[in-house]
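FAQ: What does the model actually see?

It sees only this:
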Amino acid sequence: MELKPRRARFLTGLFLFFSSALLLAAQDLPAGEDGLPRVFREISLGMSLEDLKEILLRDGLFNFRGDRDVSLLPARDQSLVETTGLSFVKRAFFQLRDGRLFIMAYTLNDDLVDHYSVFTSLTEKYGRPDFLSPQQTVWERENTRLALERPLTVKYIDREVFNSIIGESRTVESREIRRRQEFLDAF
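And it is asked to produce this:
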């Protein structure tokens, strides 16, 4: 089937236009310096509690009820925002330390989206995962960890803050082990 030259130029131009638009859109993906996203919709790792609450109130994907969805955690300067979602998101959890968001977790509605579709989408965007098991798939870079877990949950984690918390808990655990041994040695 031979196309008329005018129609062929039109189709070629249309193809180039859409290809360029897709390429530009891909360049504008909200990713951190290390290539993994640190933003979902308008919510980003590192944002303040007040900014998070404002966005959740505005965003129609969440059923955020204000301060009654915010809890203070017993750990040092940590708080948790837990809210239900509408449509694709069943529940969302946001953990903050020193007033800054360091974990975002979205439990998705598996009636509307399936694990394989999310896995495929993330793999196409961010490449092969760094870790893969039946329970979770993980993409990890210097500052960011993105995990797809079962049940169908997507987590964004600021690795610097998370690793700091892990280090502090190991210090406390080590101190407790030493105290226990000192107590036992006293007998």
